[in-house]
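Exercise: predict the structure of this protein bound to 2-acetamido-2-deoxy-beta-D-glucopyranose.
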Amino acid sequence: MRRAASRLVSRTCSSVCVATVGFVLLLGVCLLYLPDPFSLEPLVSVSDDNSEVTLLIWMHPFGQYRKLPHCGGLYGIEGCTLTDKPRPRAQKWVWMNYESPAHTPGLWRFEGVFNLTMTYRTDSDIFLPYGYLIPRGRRAKGLQNRYARPLHVLSRSLLRPRLVAWVISNWSESQARVAFYYQLRRYLQVDVFGRAGRPLPAGSGNVVRLVSRYQFYLALENSPHTDYITEKLWNAVLAGAVPVVLGPSRQNYERFLPPPGLYPRRRFSNCSSFGRYLLMLKRNPIQLKRHLDWRGSYSVHQPSFWAEHYCTVCRAVKKTRGKATR
Ligand SMILES: *[C@@H]1O[C@H](CO)[C@@H](O)[C@H](O)[C@H]1NC(C)=O
Ligand SMILES: *[C@@H]1O[C@H](CO)[C@@H](O)[C@H](O)[C@H]1NC(C)=O
Ligand SMILES: *[C@@H]1O[C@H](CO)[C@@H](O)[C@H](O)[C@H]1NC(C)=O
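Solution:
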């Protein structure tokens, strides 16, 4: 009994010893990797040669401007020039934005900062919309010709198996387009795709391929703003579906697409009459054809993000080089 107890004690002791040795080893390893406060100094003196470093402070912390220090005088750190975004007088800054004003908060901060604007708005200095039509007969400029896709009057598009599709990524109950959808679905079948609906097929060109099976496509913008007409419209056009639009005014849409090409939701006083009209078109190919005939005379060009945008800026800068802008 006593022997058993002493064996137990010695076994306990040996495991304590192993644990202690293990702990000391671990400590040793940890100490090896602990940062040594004194190793900071040699790092500085290594670069204490004659080389010059210019450090750009891109943004002052918390946006509060502070006078930049003189590293040599204060800390004996020589060869350092601190600078905060120097702006040569001749350099032009371009404001490029493809969101709507509703999703671009805090713009007032940039008042008087930029020289040129590049947006989807026709009154931008550099105007490049999400897409545009090119009349077929006109000899378009090189870039437009290379990427423009001719539209066809598809007789088969009159016999599409499905009625209305809607692809939406940012579903929000407060949006007018969601309210419109709730109304419309009381009168006809609307197939919803995207985060809030059925999954989208994978691959590039997936939306256009999907929408090609539908007669109508809901091209509903997230907010109504001048010229804010996005790829939603052009996806419908490319797919040969008739776009049902909600966004800026009808007149605004008609600057981008011939009037028979679309159905502004606002043309109808309520969704019941609107839904009935779509169903009537579905049953009435001759009426429907009137909304697709225009296609034969146009090609569509969708500038690709962001390659064409950068290159278009470059062309614009070349044109305005040496000229004051604003
Ligand atoms: C999504 O919708 C909400 C509500 O309208 C809006 O606050 C948010 O900015 C939107 N997000 C995008 C990426 O558009
Ligand atoms: C919808 O509008 C049509 C005419 O534009 C009208 O006859 C009908 O009563 C309206 N329906 C509702 C529910 O307001
Ligand atoms: C660009 O805009 C800034 C800020 O308004 C202005 O100071 C600068 O002179 C402008 N530059 C040119 C080249 O127009």
